[in-house]
TrEMBL record:
It is found in: Periplasm. GO terms for molecular function: peptide binding; peptidyl-prolyl cis-trans isomerase activity; unfolded protein binding. GO terms for biological process: Gram-negative-bacterium-type cell outer membrane assembly; protein folding; protein stabilization. The lineage of its organism: Bacteria, Pseudomonadati, Pseudomonadota, Gammaproteobacteria, Lysobacterales. This is Chaperone SurA. Keywords: Chaperone, Isomerase, Periplasm, Repeat, Rotamase, Signal. The gene is surA. Residues 1-26 form the signal peptide. It catalyses: [protein]-peptidylproline (omega=180) = [protein]-peptidylproline (omega=0). Residues 175-277, 289-388 form the PpiC domain. The PPIase activity resides only in the second parvulin domain. The N-terminal region and the C-terminal tail are necessary and sufficient for the chaperone activity of SurA. The PPIase activity is dispensable for SurA to function as a chaperone. The N-terminal region and the C-terminal tail are also required for porin recognition. Residues 433-456 are annotated as: Disordered. Residues 438-449 have a biased composition (Polar residues). GO terms for cellular component: outer membrane-bounded periplasmic space. SUPFAM superfamilies: FKBP-like (SSF54534), Triger factor/SurA peptide-binding domain-like (SSF109998).
Amino acid sequence: MNKLFASPLLAGLIAGGLLFGGAVHAQDVQPIDRIAAIVDEDVILKTELDRAVANILAQYAGRSEQLPPRDVLEKQVLERLILLKIQVAQAQGTGVRVTDQEIDQAIGGIAQSNKISVEQLRQQLARDGSSYTDFRASIRDELLVQRLRQRFAQTRVSVSDAEVDAALAAQANTGTQYHLAHILVALPEGATAEQIATAQKKVDGVKALIDKGEMDFNAAAVRYSDSPNALEGGDLGWRNGDEIPAAFSDLMKQMKPGQITAPLRGPSGFQLLKLVEVRDASQSAPQMVTQYHARHILVRVSDQVSEAQAKAKAETLRARIAGGAKFEDVVKESSEDLGTQNKGGDLGWFMKDEFGPEFGGAVTSLADNDISQPIHTSAGYHIIQRLGTRESDVADQSKRAQVQETIGRRKLEEEWNRFLREKRGEAYVDFRVGKGSEGNQPGTETTLPTAKPAGS
């Protein structure tokens, strides 16, 4: 089977085995299909679970020995599907919406990244036994979850200038980044002494397997880790020193690539950390880019204002400016970008795609002081006036932005995982397949069955 390489938009879907899993809602249930689990008012069908598991098996073709037993794998994948349903429901319940046009744009991007047309993508899906309708539903769900996570980040996560300054100072002293992987043996909040002892025994057994050479770290993560990234071998990617808890960071400085820590107790349970690689990121080469200075007027699309109405309003505002009205006066009276309304719509200096490809494309096509026709983006309709351009070295600015992003990402991971645990605990989940179906209760999370490591 030919594999499709997705854009970053769908990294989570592919990693979770969900790309062709489909999104089946209660009203779509067919009597001939079995139900794998009920999640609040939604369901996961057995065929949906089987497709997601098959996708994982295809990813591990030739390395199936790294996967846990079939029943354990099914439980891991089912938990991912459950979390996806919970997140989609949360997004829809809080007013997050995705339009058909946005889904089409995302699919077009996936096709382009695979260097095929959308029609060829449809044909590929058909050859793989997947329906285009289910594929679109998967894209929709991923976009909903992305927007929910973005909204969550905006309301729950903030990074101060002082935090960025401190991180830059620390990075200037060391300049070291660490590529890490981990294995998590999770503990519930308020774990009992017996639960702690069981988890300690399990993590010790996993460490013994690795030390004896009976299993490599990635395979052990796939088989035994309770982390959401278990099926990716526990890979945590590159982390700056400030992104790692101080106690762990001190350990990293003493380790060599390939080494693994002894079991470490953290807020989520016991962990094994592996140092994969180390690199020096202290030096910043000049980074020359073209920056643009522009101002804009925004007319938003909403439940009360259709796209046609927003476009018509934007065209009227553009006609007023062409007729002699001052741009800044129209901004003050009519722009719906509250962040720039009191600044005459001024966006300051920015790089081409900072506000999205449609906005950037419009700005680059203008001459200085020219005013665009209404431009459509995901935010609504914009009237843009380009004020100037310059060549600028943004190495320091880029580095600061990267540090701010990494600190924010770390905070978001912590808050988001806590949020998901809360929502998972509150959800009614009724398992209809596997061992979890023997003792279903609302608001409880079934512990994943785990093969007992040798030596545990």
